[in-house]
Structure formats: C-alpha cells, structure tokens
Amino acid sequence: MRDPSTGVHRAIDAVWRMESARLVAGLVRLVRDVGLAEELAQDALVAALEQWPGAGIPHNPGAWLMAAAKHRAIDQVRRARMMERKHGEMAREREALEEAAVEMRDAALDDPIGDDLLRLMFIACHPVLAPEARVALTLRLLGGLSTEEIARAFLVPVPTVAQRIVRAKQALAEARAPFEAPRGPEFRARIDSVRGVIYLIFNEGYATTSGADWTRPALCEEALRLGRILAELAPGEAESHGLAALMEIQASRLRARTGPGGEPILLPDQDRGAWDGLLIRRGLAALDRAERLGGVRGPYTLQAAIAACHARARTAGDTDWGRIAELYRELARRAPSPIVELNRAVALGMAHGPAAGLEAVDALRSEPSLQAYHLLPTVRGDLLHKLGRMAEARAEFERAAALTRNGRERTLLLERSAACGIPDRC
User: Any idea where the DUF6596 domain is (predicted)?
Assistant: First the structure.
C-alpha cells in the first residue's frame, strides 16, 4: 500500500524549491546574517516535514515557512538578549522583532517578487567573494540547490563546494558587509557582477566545460529563473533585460543541441522545429524591452541581438551572417576580447567566405589567452575544411580534441578529424 506521506514529502520538496530563496532573503533582512538565515530556513523545513504529513499542506505554504522561521528567530533573540542585555533592552529588541515578523509575514511573501530577493542577489555576489564562491553561494541561496547538487553540476568534490560556501559566509561576516542593495555607482558596479555570475551559471549549463555531458539543462533553468527575477527587480536596467533575452533565446535550442544518445548537434545541423517557440518569443520581447530603454547597447543586449538573428532564420541558410558580423564588430568595441574576435571571425567566414574567416582567425593565433582555448583550433579546422585543406584541418581538430575537457565534445572533434582523411587538395 502506498504511503500517503510520500506525496506530502514530494510536495514539500517542490514548495522548498519555489520558496527557499524568498524565505532566506526575508530572514537575512531580519537577522542580518546569511548563515543564521539559512539555519532558520532549515528549521522551518524540518517543522514542515514533521507537521504537514499529519496536518496537511497549508493554503499558503511559503507564508507558513516564513512564520515558522521567524518564530524560531524571535525565540533565539529572546534567549540571547536575556543573557547579554538588560531586561529593558531585551524588551525593546523583542518588540521590534515581533513587529517586523508580523509586518513581513503579512506583506513580504504576499508580494510575488520583492526587494528582499534583489538584496540577497547582491549579498551573494559581493565583491569580497571570489567568483567561484559567488557562484556557489548564489546557487545555494537563490537557486535552492544543495551542496551535493552544486558539486555535481560543476563536477567538483562536495567538500570543495561546502568549503566555498562556509568561507563565503565567513568572508561576508568579517567584511561586515551591509545587508542592503547598494545605491548609485556601487549599484551599477555590483549589478554587473550579479549578471556575470548568472550568465556564468547559464553558460556552464549550455556548454559544459568538462565531464561526460554536452549540456546541463538544470543549470540553464536555474540561471534563467534568476535572470528573469533580476530583470523584473531592476526594470530600468537595459542590460538585465538583455541578459534575460540572451538566455531565453539560447535556452530555446537546448532540446535540439543533443541527439538521442546525448551526442552534440551543432547549430547548422539542428532541427529548428525542435526549438522552443515560447522561449524565443519571450527572448525577443525581452530584447525589444532592452532596446526601447535606449542608450548604448551593452554586451548582453548585443549578444541577444546576435542570438535573435539565428532565432528569426527559418533555416540555417537564411541566417543573416552579415548582420551578425556587424553586431560582433560593435560588441568588440563595447567589450573587447579575443573570444569576441574569434566569434566575429566565424561570422565573417559565413558572410564573406572561409578565406576571410581564416584570415581573421590567423590574426588571433598568437594571442596568449587563446593558446589553450580549444575553440580556436576548432574554428580554424572548420574553415580549413571548407577550403579543402584537409590535412591541416585534421591536425587542428586533433589539437582541439586534446584541449577540450568535455568528453562529448572530444568525441565530436575526433570524428571530424577522421572525416578529414582525404588528401590535401591545395
């Protein structure tokens, strides 16, 4: 006979996924401590696991969890203040916390997206933290992922991720980081970091750097969810809408990027009928919103415009590569980097022929930052293949296969190398 509590536990898990970020965010505002806020949220989860199987799932489970956590917080403050402060100070503190608890219980979680989430994003992406710590803390606090899930997603040991999270919390405490979203110039500087972390998470899901999988859709989904939240919390920030647009459009291709066995399928060979039309429409709408805000287009908005060129093409042959090359040229002015120039070389090769693309790629061969970048020989091999220079193409694909850390990609590159076993025609 099926245990009825199994369904309740599954429902609790779903509620936790949906509500944990707002729960922790609201608690951080109350207790001013990320680690304590997480502990209180976990206490509320334990209470739900104990009570809901018998009492049933409450009508507003998020508010129930918040109320349980705040009651626990108030109890802790009461005990602490009884030991540390005079009775008068304790009473004032208790009264203030109880008033805050009532106000937040009644209002904060009734708002589907509140300022607490934005505040938590800025805390998780504080400049005092190393980039890998920002990613781990963001996924833990805002993505609701466990330490084990984060470790599995990035193919690193669980203790490593756990240590990053612990050290991140310690660093925030030691730096006495304010638990408020920054304003003015600091806001602009920090929101760039927030966007960067979100897109880093998305990219790791879209094109996994190492391991046996070509993509990790769950990471893309988490990043996309965070990007949507950020865009709504900062509606006047064009680049936040640009980032959301870029991820929506790229995520639309996920189903078409792999075959039945998980093997990679490159963009020209993808079944465009398998692209997600809803995500494309959402992405194009977000791009339009970013561009209507005016001003100079930033890197995410420009990349979204490039992705839109692919999304609007009914077939690979209909792609406006000339437009893409122009957008990459603008992107290179706004955010110069060798990788942008490499992508521009691909577009030039498609728009003006492989010889033009190869000339642009060869100008990058001495770039130090690209010496261990597997996509440089991959692109060069593709262009040489199109020019009929098979022996050279084969060598490039073999070099790329040796450089990549992704097993699926290595197999693909070795297959492309083997396909070049034709005498050089040049």
Answer: 190-290
